[in-house]
Amino acid sequence: MSESLNPQPPSASAPAEGAASYTPPKWRTEPRFPDGPAPDPAGSHHERRIRSFQPRRSRVTTGQGEALKRLWGTWGLDIDGHRVIDLKAMFDGLPVVLEIGFGMGEATAQMAAADPGTGILAVDVHTPGQGNLLALAERGGLTNVRVANGDAIILLREMLPPDSLAGLRVYFPDPWPKARHHKRRLIQPEFLDLAATRLAPGAILHCATDWEPYAEQMLEVLTAHPRFENTRADGGFAPRPDFRPLTRFEGQGLDKGHVVHDLLFRRTDS
Ligand SMILES: C[S@@+](CC[C@H](N)C(=O)[O-])C[C@H]1O[C@@H](n2cnc3c(N)ncnc32)[C@H](O)[C@@H]1O
């Protein structure tokens, strides 16, 4: 596995070598909502690793803040990197799909409502979205959604057992259009190496993007990866499956005239 995904093990108490002098700003270390998500619980800011997201402090509405305080203890998961999760216990035995980067969570809530027989572990670092998804899940009486706070890489690498996922969804990951930022893109060979170990054989990795060059990159690296095979016999992009609702980010892309591409690849048995 590449250096970018496999640095020093995460530890909130022991910063990675070379980062000893780093003092995180207060907003990265102080809880914003009592009983809500812990700030950077895995201490990933101490890791010397290129991240696919930009840490930022975003405005949280009163409703989102209330939802975080009230519901996090029941439905939230802090990605602390210190334990392996029993997904069967967490989701009452349902098959579990991981969604990375759910944004504001509207599409996630819709998919959970439409398919109560599947558990969705939804991960993002975006606090307003976490509050929004919790509120949507409560309003919809959804018991098959859990909201995780932190870096999906640490969740996959440290906290999910091998072959444990029935699927992985990455909808409209940050496109990082500038050439010097391409290394931040999530869908890369190293990420696929890791994802392949956590997906069960036969499980589907479903990606979608409205950024043409990123779509081409996704198709190239997925096609080349020995542990994934395209569900499309023609080896190309897939039509949007009915179960994937229009996402917020997708809507913004369509408004700009972007073309959306879906990719559905199966983890092979090997
Ligand atoms: C462009 S938004 C798309 C959101 C949503 N899927 C949509 O289509 O509206 C990408 C999201 O991925 C999240 N993200 C990026 N890298 C991540 C990571 N490594 N772990 C968790 N979330 C991540 C960002 O915080 C952001 O909310």
UniProtKB/TrEMBL annotation:
Gene3D superfamilies: Vaccinia Virus protein VP39. Its EC number is 2.1.1.33. S-adenosyl-L-methionine binds at residues 99, 124, 151, 174. Residues 46-59 have a biased composition (Basic residues). Pathway: tRNA modification; N(7)-methylguanine-tRNA biosynthesis. Substrate binds at residues 178, 210, 247-250. Residues 1-64 are annotated as: Disordered. Keywords: Methyltransferase, S-adenosyl-L-methionine, Transferase, tRNA processing. InterPro entries: SAM-dependent_MTases_sf (IPR029063), tRNA_(Gua-N-7)_MeTrfase_Trmb (IPR003358), tRNA_methyltr_TrmB_bact (IPR055361). Belongs to the class I-like SAM-binding methyltransferase superfamily. TrmB family. This is tRNA (guanine-N(7)-)-methyltransferase. It comes from Streptomyces cirratus.
